[in-house]
Amino acid sequence: MDGLRLIAALSVLSFHWAGVNIHPEVWGARPGKLMPPFHAFASYGWMGVQLFFLISGFVICMSCWGRSARDYFTSRVVRLYPAYWVGVLITAVVVNSASTVRAGRKSMSISEILTNLTMLERPLGVTEADGVYWTLWIELRFYLLFAIVAVMGLTYRRVLAFCGIWMILAVITPSVGSALMDTLFMPQDAPYFIAGVALYLIYRFGVNPLLLGVVAFSWLVAQNRLHYTAGSYEFEVHGKLSWTVMAIVSGACFLVMLAAATGALNWIRWKGLTVAGALTYPVYLLHQELGWAMIRWGRNYDIPPFPLLGLCLTAILLLAWLVHRFAERPLSNLLKRLLDGAKVSLPKSDPPVRSR
Fold first, then answer.
1. Please, are residues 60 and 142 in contact by the beta-carbon 8 Å criterion?
2. Is residue 343 predicted with pLDDT exceeding 70?
3. For the chain, what percent of residues have pLDDT higher than 70?
4. Tens digits of residue pLDDT in 253-268
5. Nearest of 135, 7, 148, 150 to residue 67 by alpha carbon
6. Average pLDDT over residues 26-51
7. CA atoms within 13 A on the CB side of 58
């Protein structure tokens, strides 16, 4: 899973650095003209987000099985927010002060930065510090839905029922035309989370036709939704994306996750994968705006595209390690201690009224 996370992050990174054509000022020309073969590959890098959602469904189910609702809440807050807060602040500094930030990117006000720290900037109508943060709003909604099962206690039957009910609601939502249902049930992204959850059931309880059916049905729905999802990415790529390629990449993501769930990849025991997994989240949070600023800086000094990509990737990986080692880990430990403290827990009855 750690290795797959890094692959997904680097895939999204390649899309933003070499697949996006709508910011030619970053490279001084469109990436499609500077490096056509790599651009053609990177144009589909956004599908790393779908792999992230598959992994998320698997990992969330795994991490809260047999744990209380409070443990579930604590684990999600501790996992998401410390690195995110640091990412927001670093990105805000770059956006507001770097001379090579992409043209058209407005500086962030203090209010916008503070709103971004909530991770709810999208529903609050505020621009994300970094464009990739829109996916975190989707993750939060998935956590909210899955909390329903976590509060009741995870069992095979409850989790499977959750998958079936959510899939039905996600499928009918587009025909209903309800903005509320669209927000809650996420028809574009639900198949990936649902498949990830079902894949964890396969990992925990073994393969059976019902679970394989859930995974296969999820892919069938996912390939249909690609027709709608691809539109915004075609705008960024400034070109037509092949449904065949998208369906193959999507299917490959499902298959590699199935291989992981069934133990077919258990032979992969590289020690470096743990480090890779730790760096994935900071890399994802930091790569877009900072990466574009670094690319624009390098092009000002006429550094060729591929050496510049290698230089920028090295810098982002190093920064991600620094954030993980000196910010995310200590902040996560501190936050966990605070949330685990007795004063944070909800009392079973009203506390005594304080005397005045």
1. yes
2. no
3. 98
4. 999 999 999 999 999 8
5. 150
6. 96
7. 28
Query: How far apart are the C-alpha atoms of 251 and 183, rounded to whole Å?
Result: 26
Whether 320 and 275 have beta carbons less than 8 Å apart is answered as: no
pLDDT of residue 281: 96
pLDDT of residue 271: 82
Long-range pairs, 152-161, Cβ under 8 A, ≥24 = 154/61, 154/64, 154/65, 154/66, 156/201, 156/205, 159/61, 159/197, 159/201, 160/198, 160/201, 160/210, 160/211, 160/214
Contact yes or no for 319/78 (Cβ under 8 A):
no
What is the distance between the alpha carbons of residues 313 and 125, in angstroms, rounded to a whole number? 31
Please give the residue that has the higher pLDDT: either 230 or 344.
Answer: 230
Q: Looking at residues 73-86, what average pLDDT do you find?
A: 95
The count of other CB atoms within 10 Å of the CB of residue 26 is 23
The two structure tokens encoding residue 214: 């859930």
Q: What is the pTM of this model?
A: 0.95
Distances (CA, A) of 102 to 49, 127, 303, 323: 23, 15, 18, 23
- Predicted confidence (pLDDT) at residue 352 exceeds the cutoff of 90: no
Q: Which two tokens stand for residue 295?
A: 């690319």
Which structure tokens are listed for 161? 């029922």
Do 23 and 102 meet the contact criterion of CB atoms below 8 Å apart? yes
Two structure tokens written together for 10: 């680097």
Q: How confident is the model at residue 351 (pLDDT cuts 50, 70, 90)?
A: confident
Please, is 31 exposed, middle or buried when counting C-beta atoms within 10 Å of its C-beta (0-12, 13-18, 19+)?
A: buried
> How many CB atoms are closer than 10 A to CB 234?
12
Please name which of 40, 22, 57, 37 lies closest in space to residue 196, comparing C-alpha atoms: 57
pLDDT reported for residue 340 = 87
